[in-house]
Amino acid sequence: MSSFLEVVDVHKYFPGVKANDGVNLDVRAGEVHAVLGENGAGKSTLMKLISGLYQPDAGEIRLEGRPVRFGSPRNAIRAGIGMVHQHFMLIPALTVADNIVLGDEPGGIRYKRRTAAAQVRALSQKYRLEVDPLARVEQLSVGLQQRVEILKVLYRRARLLILDEPTAVLTPQEAEELFQVLRHLKAQGTPVLFISHKLDEVRAVADRITVMRAGRTVATVPAADASPQELANLMVGREVVLRVNKPPRTPGDVVLSVRNLSVTDAERRLRVRDVSFEVRAGEILGIAGVDGNGQTELADAIAGLLPASGGQVAFLSQDITRLPPGERTRRGIAYVPQDRQRDGLVLDFTLVENAMLRDVSHPPFSRRGILQHRPARAYTERLLEAFDVRPRDPDRHAGDLSGGNQQKMILAREVSRDPSLLIAVQPTRGLDVGAIEGIHRQLLRLREAGKAILLVSLELDEILSLSDRIAVMHHGQVVDIVPAETATREQIGLLMTGTRVGESEVAQPSNR
C-alpha cells in the first residue's frame, strides 16, 4: 500500500525546547494511523506541522511522494489535509449547514442556503455522518457536534483527516459511532491520523500505531500485534503498571453528606440541580458524566468555592454549607482542582512556597509573623521524596515542572495535611501513563488509610477502576448511583445521556 503522507526526519525547535527531534512517520491511503505519546512527547507539534500551523525547521513533509511546505492551515486544506481539533470551533447560533459551508458558501455573497443544506445532506449521507443540516448547533449533542466538525473538513475536500483526542468528550456509545465512521472513511480510501492517549481505543480502531517519546518517534507497530502493556512501556521508556489493584474494603462512617444541593454559576445559570449523595470513610465515590454537566460546579460548591443556592453540605456530621473555603480546609477537606496551573499552583513561586500555601501563617512555617524557611524547606524535601516529584529541588519554580510533576506536587501538599475528605477533579487530565500510575497509587493509599475520596473524572476507565460506587451526572442532576463492581461501560454510557438501562425516556434524578 502506497504512502499518502510522509514525514521525513522533521525537526521543530522553540526557545530551549526540541519539540520534534528527527520525527519519521508515514500514513498510507485507506488506513487509520494512531499516534501515541506522553504529555509533551511532541504529538501536537507534529500535527500542527502537518496541518500548516507551524513550518518545520529541518526535514521534509511529502504528500503523495511530492515535497510540500504549507504556509498556513488554508494551504494545507487546499492540499487535502483537514484537522478536527479537540475543542470544537462551531458557532452555536448557526445551523449545521451554515457552520459547515462558512467561508466557502455556495453562491458567495449571494448565499444560497437551500443549496448549502442540500450539499450538506448529500455529504452526510455519503460518509454516513447523519445530521440534520437545518438544526442549530446549540441544540445538538456533543457527538453530533463532532460529526459537524468532521463534515466541515470533508466539505473542503480533505483527503487526509487528523483527529486530535476525538473521544475526550464522548460517551462510550458516541465513541463507538465515531469508530464506525472512521471504518467507513477507511473503506473509501480516506486515511485518518488518530491522536489519543487511550490505549484500548487505538488498538480497536487503528491499523498501525506510531509511538512518540521526547520529541522522537520510537516505534511503529501493527495495532493487531501490540498489547496495551507494550504500548505503555514504549511511551514511557520503562515498565508501567496498568492494572489498578484495588483490594476490597468495607466503608466506615459517613464523612460527606450532600442533600438536595443546587448551585448556580457566575452567570446565575443553574448548574447543579437537587443533588444528594454520601461518601464514607475508606470509599471512593466516582462522579462520571460528559464534560459540562455540573461536575466541576458540584466539586467547587463542596470545597466552598461556589455558594450553594439550595440544599445542605455536611462534613463529619457538621453543617458546612455556609462556611468559607479556608475554614473547610482547616476542618479537614483537601481539594485538587481541575486546572492545576490556574487554581492549584502559583507558577512563579518556588516549590517551598507552594508547599506551605495552605498553612503559611501557622507553625512550623510561621512564628510570630515571621516565615521559618528551614522547616519549610525540610517539609518540602520530604514531600518531593514521598511523592516522587521531579526534579527534587525545593527552590525550583512550579512553572518549571512538567504537568505530571505539577499534579503530584498539588496532591502531595493536599494529602500531607492528613484530610478526612479529598476532592480530586480530573487528577490525571493530560498526564502520561507513568504519571497516571503514580496518582492512582496515591489515591488507593488514601482509601486504604480510611479517607473519603470524591473523584470527578471524564475518563470512564479511571472511574470504573478506582471507584467503589459511581454517581452519574446529566444536566446537573445525579441520574443514578451504581456499585462499581457490577457497572459496565455500556450502562454508565447510557446513564451519561440521561437514560437508565431498560428505559427510553430521560431518567429522573436519584437521591440515594
From TrEMBL:
<dbReference type="Pfam" id="PF00005">
    <property type="entry name" value="ABC_tran"/>
</dbReference>
<dbReference type="InterPro" id="IPR017871">
    <property type="entry name" value="ABC_transporter-like_CS"/>
</dbReference>
<dbReference type="InterPro" id="IPR027417">
    <property type="entry name" value="P-loop_NTPase"/>
</dbReference>
<keyword id="KW-0813">Transport</keyword>
<keyword id="KW-1003">Cell membrane</keyword>
<feature type="domain" description="ABC transporter">
    <location>
        <begin position="256"/>
        <end position="500"/>
    </location>
</feature>
<keyword id="KW-0547">Nucleotide-binding</keyword>
<dbReference type="InterPro" id="IPR003439">
    <property type="entry name" value="ABC_transporter-like_ATP-bd"/>
</dbReference>
<dbReference type="InterPro" id="IPR003593">
    <property type="entry name" value="AAA+_ATPase"/>
</dbReference>
<keyword id="KW-0762">Sugar transport</keyword>
<dbReference type="GO" id="GO:0016887">
    <property type="term" value="F:ATP hydrolysis activity"/>
</dbReference>
<keyword id="KW-0677">Repeat</keyword>
<feature type="domain" description="ABC transporter">
    <location>
        <begin position="5"/>
        <end position="239"/>
    </location>
</feature>
<dbReference type="GO" id="GO:0005524">
    <property type="term" value="F:ATP binding"/>
</dbReference>
<protein>
    <submittedName>
        <fullName>Simple sugar transport system ATP-binding protein</fullName>
    </submittedName>
</protein>
<keyword id="KW-0067">ATP-binding</keyword>
<dbReference type="GO" id="GO:0005886">
    <property type="term" value="C:plasma membrane"/>
</dbReference>
<keyword id="KW-0472">Membrane</keyword>
<keyword id="KW-1278">Translocase</keyword>
<dbReference type="InterPro" id="IPR050107">
    <property type="entry name" value="ABC_carbohydrate_import_ATPase"/>
</dbReference>
